[in-house]
Amino acid sequence: MKVCLSPNGRNVFAGEALPSELLVGTIDGISVLERQGPGNSWKKSGHQLKDRHISALLLEPKRGGLFAGVHGKGLYASMDGGKNWELKTRRLTQEHVYTLASVERNGDIVLYAGTEPAHLFQSVDYGETWQELSALRSVPGADKWTFPAPPRLGHVKHIAFDPRDSRVMFASIEQGALLKSMDAGKSWHEISSFYKPEDEVYKDVHRLVLRPSNPDQIYFTGGMGLYGSSNGGQTWEHLTLRSWRIGYPDALFTSPVDDTVMFMAGASKSPQHWRETKTAGATVARSRDGGRMWEILEGFPQSLRGNIEAMSMAVWANKFALFAGTTDGEVLLSEDEGESWSQIASGLAPVSKAGHYRQLQ
């Protein structure tokens, strides 16, 4: 099974056997790691799209196309597993592709590209041409979307779909909004009931996850911690706070074996503190009750300096593995539900959303 590990791309992969190849999106292209034999020994075997800062990777599962969103340099596609790449930016009017997603709808594959500044594009011809879903920019309050780091432009960080109806979509705007569409992106409305005027950061939404067995139960991570809703976003519970051990969460998963088991990863504090503390204090936590109570995984390295900027899950034969990539160019792997972790690569270029890695240089 081939798996991608990147800050903002597709991060759940399914196959018939344990993962054997990992594509890691870094600030210097894609590092290819291959498993050596049946154990946890991995070796770097390739380097693709050198000198390009990879924001998102998407391995489309039906046709096998590989897509890479690049920081300030558009979008590339490969139809042969990464051996050859082509720039695919026809009618894509924004150069920084921040996130990528795909969905099968009425037998067709639709690709999505979210950008910085925050625009959303779709392709119905497998990336050959793109069309902007301009209604996203018409949501009231779009003029307030921002991001703390220069050039201070908000971006589309994550796209999620309701498994019952792929026309129901969610877009996470960092920072500025959690948006929902009921008609495949033709129109959007904001879900804002989680926000309070006294919040320390303004509507900072990172990643949204729908519980597979009950998609009306949704969660999102952000700059204020973890939120959960049992009624599709009408009302919210603030499940973890900025003062908790993971005060700046990003990655969030439900277990494919039991979706009351969840995994969350992130830094102890937001990026502006990393330069002072010389560490992100990143770690991984697990919940066994649908996100209400969390435990820090003792088997994860507690002295990790870099931030976990990318995390992926590989699923096979009722088993799963978790991969984590850091701003220090490390890749860690767990194949026992997070109980223990192995470092399978080090010395890679930083895995980093935007300029986060600079805070730890």
Q: Concise description?
A:
With 361 residues, the chain is an all-beta fold. Helix content is 1%, strand content 44%.
So what's the overall shape?
A: globular
- List segments where confidence is low: pLDDT < 50 over at least 5 consecutive residues: none
Radius of gyration: 19 Å
Quaternary organisation: single chain
- Strand order across the biggest sheet? 2-26-27-28-29
Series of secondary-structure elements, N-terminal to C-terminal: EEEEEEEEEEEEEEEEEEEEEEEHEEEEEE
Report, as a whole number of angstroms, the end-to-end distance.
34 Å
- The total of helices stands at 1
Overall pLDDT score: 96
Helix content: under 10%
Please describe the biggest sheet, giving its number of strands, its sense, and whether it closes into a barrel: 5 strands, mixed
Based on helices, strands and strand pairing, what is the structural class?
Answer: mainly beta
Write the layout of secondary structure elements.
Blueprint: E1 2-5, E2 12-14, E3 21-26, E4 29-35, E5 42-48, E6 54-59, E7 66-70, E8 74-78, E9 86-87, E10 96-105, E11 108-116, E12 120-123, E13 131-132, E14 155-162, E15 165-174, E16 177-181, E17 189-190, E18 205-210, E19 218-222, E20 225-229, E21 237-240, E22 248-254, E23 262-267, H1 274-277, E24 283-287, E25 295-296, E26 308-316, E27 319-326, E28 331-334, E29 342-345
Parallel strand pairs: 1-3, 2-26
Antiparallel strand pairs: 3-4, 4-5, 6-7, 7-8, 8-9, 10-11, 11-12, 12-13, 14-15, 15-16, 16-17, 18-19, 19-20, 20-21, 22-23, 23-24, 24-25, 26-27, 27-28, 28-29
